[in-house]
Amino acid sequence: RRLESLIGLILVMNFLSAGVGVLQVYYPRQFMPPQISSQLDQDLVDSMTYVGSDGRVIMRPPGLSDTPGGAAIAGGITVGLGLGVCLYTRKLWQTALATSMGAVGLAAVYLTQVRSVFLMALGALAVTLIIAIRQGRIARAGWGLAAGGTIIVASFLWAADLSAPDTVAH
Asked: Residue 5 contacts by C-beta under 8 Å, 6 or more apart in sequence?
């Protein structure tokens, strides 16, 4: 019971950081700390930004950290734990909530453009599904695969609509 509470707390805290990261892209004036760009060398700031689909320069969101792109780690943890909770909970509302949290986490990973965290999130999904299959939870693993695939596509479309990661500034 304590372990479940701890995992839930870790999931919620990382979700909050990933969610703030997404908000920092949508509403940078309200959510992006101004000292991040003022304390860094201009060349470093330029390397931590990209041009969105609407033409504006977007800094990779730090989330609740102080490093540009820091929201990626929180997003990756949210994806892994969220999908793990989906596979092992029996309550529909918890499954829906954890799936939604995973989608926000993956959107934060896409928006930060940290590809290594994306690959680790995919690896976590694969390992979680393998464990579920080895435990004989075939139906849950199939559902997890479908939910994971949906999250990957939906989060990508959401992030791609917000910004175009392939048009890197400078």
From this structure: none
